[in-house]
Design goal:
Number of domains: 1
Number of helices: 2
Radius of gyration: 20 Å
Structural class: alpha+beta
Strand order of the largest sheet: 1-4-5
Helix content: 10-25%
Order of helices and strands: EEEEEHHEEE
Shape: globular
Largest sheet: 3 strands, antiparallel
Strand content: 35-45%
């Protein structure tokens, strides 16, 4: 059985830090080994063409570094604002990210 101990926290800038403290396989500590394997998998699977949100999240988790917790699901982007961990429960507070629509094509003047 793989056990991961973490103390995730959000910093004052809204960045999520996974704060992975330990990883054990049964009774054997495997954190450094698991991190190396995860980094190799990320290096092999992620490319410059991938969605940069996912790349930032994967690299943040693998490298145990803070990242912006924004996810695009279908055509909606949400930002994790707060979370609460309770025994057997994870409560997430998310809010939609409002995109600024850009005008495409020539502007039309009302003058004739």
């Amino acid at each position: 059985m793989l056990s991961i101990t973490a103390q995730p926290a959000m910093d004052e800038n809204g960045q999520l830090n996974p704060n992975v403290r330990s990883m054990t396989l049964g009774a054997i500590p495997v954190m450094s080994f698991a991190r190396k394997i995860a980094q190799q998998c990320a290096d092999q699977c992620l490319s410059a063409d991938d969605d940069q949100e996912i790349v930032a999240i994967v690299n943040g988790i693998v490298g145990n570094r803070p990242f912006e917790p924004a996810l695009t699901i279908s055509k909606y982007t949400v930002l994790l604002k707060k979370f609460t961990l309770e025994p057997g429960k994870l409560i997430l507070l998310i809010e939609p990210v409002k995109e600024v629509r850009k005008t495409t094509g020539p502007r039309v003047s009302s003058e004739s």
